[in-house]
Every structure is written in structure tokens, then in C-alpha cells.
Design a protein that fits this description.
Layout lengths: L3 E2 L9 H10 L18 H18 L5 E7 L1 H13 L5 E6 L2 H10 L4 E7 L23 E3 L2 E2 L4 E2 L11 E4 L16 E5 L9 E7 L16 H6 L9 H16 L2 H21 L17 E4 L7 H10 L2 E2 L10 E4 L6 H18 L1
Parallel strand pairs: 1-12, 3-4, 3-5, 5-8, 8-9
Antiparallel strand pairs: 2-10, 6-7, 9-10, 11-13
The protein binds pyridoxal-5'-phosphate.
The site of pyridoxal-5'-phosphate has 13 residues, from helix 3.
């Protein structure tokens, strides 16, 4: 039986995607083989790869001046890929510290370049997003990096920073495709796939063409954006099955009405869940209201001793993976695109009942 899976990542995939992958597993397109068992250089797979890119371009309205790359190593590989490609020796980069993932990106970047902290929300324990006016941006920086949605903290920027002429780089791993996005505001976007795109291991990079060619000479080939762009992300064997699943997810999103429709649904889902938390007098969410994440909703119970019972009873009711990140504790409901509104209703009903019995 399928459950409502609130995992932060790898996260739930849309049921129609899993069903199609299952149906095609042994005999993909009449070839008597699975898509995993064919050459990435053959016509059938090239068609899958190109269609996935075309569908992603259509969904996000990605201008022709941007390259779309399908790379390996998840988002973490791009923590290194971004400085190695965009920050020639002798330059520095601005980073906005909004919590766990921003800090992970900064720690990796520091191995290669000088990192300047343009803003930090540490003083609020990362329960806010910094205001535009609080960003101390260096006009000479090679780029400005930020994390629009902090997956663990559950804090999301309510605006896209204005960086003047400096390229803006965003780790959109946990919020890409959750609503429409103006790609032209960004120099580079990257996202690990396992939250809103497909299976883990894959990362999508969307990079403005004029930023290619700034790479340091020692950048590893599989992180070299220009080499990857020139080879259609096939410098070596790409993660073909993940790419195929990503393509099915993009098709599913189009069938659901695209990002405007998904965005409206995601807004309703988040509002419903936050309203249930705020109105309960039992559960609490610490994030400033204007920067609460639509995708990751952390919440605490009034007494930590109740956590175990909450998780066990929720799982028994078919609501799984609600434990908060080990660094934070409490609960976290990740409600990416694949989580239907019925899952939110089921969770809210369970939470109300649990609060009544334990309040
Ligand atoms: C999950 C996540 C990552 C890490 O992704 P990997 O694919 O495991 O490298 C990085 N940044 C954000 C915002 C994430 O949510």
C-alpha cells in the first residue's frame, strides 16, 4: 500500500511517474530492454534526453541564452563546481548564510576561493531571511551565492536578491519547479534532483552562456560546465535512468497544468498546514511568517517526550518520514510537488486528533 511520504529527500515521486516506469521497465518502447540497458549515445536515449531538456525549458521558460546540464554528484558536487567554474584565481565570491545548506556550500567553496559572507541570519538562529538592504554585496565579486529554500530549517527567501551586475547563483535543490520562476534573474541555478525532479545522484544546472569559459584550468572534466555543455552532458556516461525519470516528472508537471497550477496547489498545501500548526495551541513553527518554506515545514510538539508516540502513530496511519533532521529535532513535513492535497488533509486530521488526545 502506498503511504503519504513526507521524506525530505530522496522524496516521494508522483504515482503516475512510478507506474509508467514500472510498466516500461522490462520492455521500453518495444525494444525488449529497459531504458537502463541501452547506450546513452543511441538514438532512443538521445531522444529521451533531449525531450527532458525541452520540457524543462518549457516549464521554466528558460531563455535560449542558458545551457541546461544534467550532471552527476547531486547538489554537493556543484558546491565545488560553482567556484571552480565561475571564480578564476584571484577573485572572490559572496555567500549568503541562511542555514545548514548555505553553510555546506560555503565550506566547500572555501577550499577553492575566498568566500565573503554577504549576510548571515545566525543571530535569529536562521529563522528569518536577510532583507535586501542587509546584503553587503561586493560589486567586484565573481558571483553571489544563496540558498532560496533551506530544506532543514524550513526558511525560504520571499524575494530574489538584486545583485546589480554580479551573477546570482542559487541552490534551488528543494524548491525548483514548485512555482514559476524568472530564470533571467539568475546567472546560474543548480538543484539536486531528489526533492522535486527525480532520483538522487543527478543534478540539473541551468547556466547563462556568457558565464561559461571562466573555469579554472584545473577543474575536473565532469564538473567543467563548458565541456559538459559542448557534449550535451555526455562527456561520459550520464545517469541515464535518473534522466529518464526526470523527463517523466517534467511531463507529469505539464499534465498537471505547469508551474502556475502547481504553484497554486503548493500555496494551498502550505497555508493549510501552517494554519493547522498556528491554530493548534499545541504545535509550533519557529520561522518568521513571511519566509516560511512552502516545501519543508518543521514543527515541534509541546513536550519532546511526545515525539516518539507522534511518529509511531503517524506511521501507523500511513503518514511516514515526519521526523525532523537530526540537527534540529522535532518534526518536519516535506511537501514537495508529488505530495497531493489529500496527504495534507490526512496529516492535518491526524495532528488535530493527536493534539486532542495529548493536549
Ligand atoms: C538536499 C540538498 C542538498 C544536497 O544534495 P545532494 O544531492 O545530497 O548533494 C543541497 N542543498 C539543498 C538546498 C538541499 O536541499
Amino acid at each position: 500500500m502506498r503511504v503519504f511520504n513526507f521524506s525530505a529527500g530522496p522524496a516521494a515521486l508522483p504515482l503516475p511517474v512510478l507506474e509508467q516506469a514500472r510498466d516500461e521497465l522490462l520492455d521500453w518502447r518495444g525494444g525488449g530492454m529497459s531504458v537502463m540497458e541501452v547506450s546513452h549515445r543511441g538514438k532512443p536515449f538521445i531522444a529521451v534526453a533531449e525531450q527532458a531538456e525541452a520540457d524543462l525549458r518549457e516549464l521554466l521558460a528558460i531563455p535560449a541564452a542558458y545551457k541546461v546540464l544534467f550532471l552527476q554528484g547531486g547538489a554537493t558536487a556543484q558546491f565545488a563546481g560553482v567556484p571552480l567554474n565561475l571564480c578564476p584565481a584571484g577573485t572572490q565570491a559572496d555567500y549568503i548564510d541562511s542555514g545548514h545548506w548555505a553553510q555546506r556550500a560555503m565550506a566547500e567553496a572555501r577550499r577553492f576561493v575566498t568566500v565573503q559572507v554577504a549576510a548571515s541570519t545566525a543571530a535569529t538562529r536562521h529563522t528569518t531571511a536577510p532583507a535586501q538592504a542587509a546584503l553587503q554585496l561586493d560589486p567586484g565579486a565573481a558571483y553571489v551565492h544563496y540558498t532560496p529554500n533551506e530544506t532543514i530549517g524550513g526558511v525560504e527567501f520571499p524575494y530574489v536578491p538584486d545583485t546589480g551586475g554580479v551573477p546570482l547563483v542559487a541552490d534551488l535543490s528543494s524548491t525548483i519547479l514548485s512555482r514559476p520562476l524568472d530564470v533571467t534573474r539568475f546567472g546560474l541555478i543548480y538543484a539536486g534532483a531528489q526533492k522535486n525532479i527525480g532520483p538522487s545522484g543527478l543534478a540539473v544546472v541551468i547556466v547563462r552562456e556568457d558565464l561559461l569559459g571562466r573555469a579554472r584550468p584545473d577543474v575536473p572534466a565532469i564538473l567543467d560546465y563548458r565541456a559538459m555543455a559542448e557534449s550535451g552532458s555526455m562527456l561520459n556516461t550520464p545517469p541515464t535512468f535518473s534522466w529518464y525519470i526526470a523527463g517523466l516528472v517534467f511531463r507529469w508537471l505539464q499534465n498537471e497544468g505547469g508551474l502556475a497550477a502547481i504553484g497554486e496547489r503548493n500555496r494551498r498545501k502550505a497555508e493549510r498546514l501552517y494554519a493547522a500548526i498556528d491554530g493548534s495551541g499545541f504545535y509550533a513553527n519557529p520561522i518568521a511568517r513571511d519566509c516560511r518554506s512552502w516545501m519543508n515545514v518543521p514543527f515541534t510538539l509541546p513536550r519532546p517526550e511526545l515525539d516518539k508516540a507522534f511518529l509511531a502513530e503517524a506511521a501507523a496511519a500511513g503518514l511516514t518520514n515526519l521526523a525532523g533532521h537530526r540537527a534540529v529535532g522535532g518534526m518536519r513535513a516535506s511537501i514537495y510537488n508529488a505530495m497531493p492535497e489529500a496527504g495534507i488533509e490526512a496529516l492535518v486530521d491526524f495532528m488535530r486528533d493527536f493534539a486532542r488526545r495529548n493536549g
